[in-house]
Amino acid sequence: MVFFLVPIVLITAGWTSIPKAEYPSEIQHDFYASFDKTWDGVLEVVKILKGTIITKDKSSGVVVFSIDDNTAESKVKQIYVNIYLKSQSTTNTTLVYLIPRIKIGLYLGKIDADFFKELEKILERK
Amino acid sequence: MYKRISIPFFLFLLFVFCGCAAPVIKTELDHLYENNFDGFGTPEISDIKNRGENKSFPYTTFDEVWNSTIIVLMQCGIIVNSSKDSGIITAITTPPISIFVERGEVITIYLKWMDNLYRRSDKPGLATVKFGSYDKMKMANAFFDKLSTQVYAKEKWKYLYKDTSKL
What we know:
The complex is a heterodimer. By secondary structure, chain A is α+β, with helices and mostly antiparallel strands. Chain A has helices at about 1-15, 35-50, 110-125, and strands spanning about 30, 50-55, 60-70, 80-90, 95-100, 105. Chain A has one domain (about 25-125): Alpha-D-Glucose-1,6-Bisphosphate, Chain A, domain 4. Chain B has a five-stranded antiparallel beta sheet, with helices on both faces. Chain B starts with a helix and ends in an 11-residue tail after the last helix.
């Protein structure tokens, strides 16, 4: 009886494992501002966050920067933030993608909301 | 009595602690992380073209392929170098990848795996991780599949996108 139950338990455990998504969800936000304005705003937010720019290419709309993770509960030292800006000519808006990562994979902490909030504030001022 | 016990006990502790303090093996990639990728050397176009895998993307534009490459790469790793003028983009994925998007009537993507960054800094002849040519080919195909989906999704599966102009 036990020999019969053990494989069933193992098979059922395999079935109930949560499938892993191949892609993380795209974190994006649409801003009612021109590409140039949004680009300058993004660089300003990086400065406020005391980030170190790893690469930036305005013609591609790519900015990548790193920041120290100072949160008390975090075991991660450095967060790397990929940002991509895309001009939406039909709606006169700029779409901003943000994907934070760490050395070993995706960063699951909260950074996108703070970043977008700060960028919104800067764009309202301009 | 105490001397007899304490010496073997001391030796035992010494062996245990020696075992615990294993030396940390660092790679070229680890050093790049430590320096925030400062001084990262992007491969030459000829190097990417000659030693890499490639795939053509017909019925599309350079901009469409370039933008799609950025979106796919930023989900797979950290983009450390990007130049639309030269058409080269490099990202720290597993393993790190360098891509050249060639302009033309048909857009061609050349891909080079930079697994040389896994070389040990103390012994450059040795690497901490190795990828065989079959593994690289499989990884390249998986990347091209993702990229094709990103490039052609709107063209191939138009029914997924609502045409608001007809509403």
